[in-house]
Design goal:
By secondary structure, the chain is mainly alpha-helical. Helices cover 50% and strands 0% of the residues. It is elongated, with a radius of gyration of 31 Å.
């Protein structure tokens, strides 16, 4: 009985990777339904974004403040 149990477990462990490689039919249907991108609407939306007045510096917190220049 012990040998039969060990053999059944071994066969199950060998079959798991083969079962995982089986392709699911629902994945193909979801891949076909991609949203259509309207290029004109996309560019119009980009044009509506206002330009920043000053340049953004993401490292401004990490850098020390500039020291005040002394007049000579």
């Amino acid at each position: 009985m012990r040998r039969f149990t060990i053999a059944a477990i071994a066969l199950t462990l060998l079959a798991i990777p083969a079962y995982a490689q089986r392709k699911q039919p629902t994945e193909d249907k979801k891949a076909d339904k991609k949203p259509v991108v309207d290029e004109k609407a996309y560019k119009a939306a980009l044009d509506r974004i206002p330009e920043p007045k000053e340049k953004y510096d993401p490292w401004s917190i990490a850098k020390p403040a500039e020291p005040a220049k002394k007049p000579k």
